Request: fold
Amino acid sequence: MRIFVTVVETMVDKGANTVIAHMKHLKDHNENELLEEATRYLENNADVIEFDIRKMISEANIRSLHILVMEVPCCGGLSRMVQITRSQARRDIPVEVTVVSIHGEVLKSINI
Reply:
């Protein structure tokens, strides 16, 4: 299992698009055990992810943040995490959330 955790850590380091692509791949290939482990990793490391988001907003001088989430219920947590983290950052920036279907189609985009 440690090898898989290292893979997930590497995916997280490479960014959201990489995480989304790998999670979709696991779902598409019915790798439920690995999908559950990846989801647990992300949930268990929420404080690190929140810290990174807060640091990006406060220190990296980004002008906006665009989040891509899947339509499944568990992805809603990322939007909530970003809203809370943005409120704790040193400055406020616009955040757009794009929701895609499990087939990759854009369903909606909203500003939060």
